[in-house]
Amino acid sequence: MATAKKPAVAAAKKPAAKAEKTAASAKAPAAPRKPNAAFMKPMTPSTILAAVVGAAPLPRTEVTKKVWEYIKKLDLQDAANRRMINADDKLKAVFGGKAQVSMFEMTKLISDHLK
Q: What is the C-alpha separation between 79 and 73, in angstroms, rounded?
């Protein structure tokens, strides 16, 4: 008879412990997300990049948005593999002479043209 009581006691403890965890997590409010100051700092594009995004200082996020607008306007994404960007003359100069780069490599190459 003693063994029959143990599972009942253990089963009663589990829901209480679970309720304590959810109550503790509900007490702590989530901190509001703050933008990273490094991404928001206006940076001056090089003359090569300025041909695509303009010469005015822009945050990195805006530079990336403007490059994507340029790519979509001229339909420079590869049709077979949408992750690849086919460079025109202006972008080829930004990409260091490469005719095609991946979208992940593109951000690295663009950052080389920001001061």
A: 14
Total number of domains constituting the chain: 1
3-state secondary structure of 40: helix
Q: What is the pLDDT of residues 62-105, one digit of tens each?
A: 999 999 999 999 999 999 999 999 999 999 999 999 999 999 99
Domain that holds residue 66: 37-111
CB burial of 70-88 (b: ≥16 within 10 Å; e: otherwise) equals bbeeeebbeeeeeebbbbe
Q: Phi and psi for 101 in degrees, rounded to 5?
A: -135, 160
In sequence order, the 6+-apart residues with CB closer than 8 A to the CB of 51 are 90, 93
CA angle 47, 52, 57 (to 5 degrees): 60
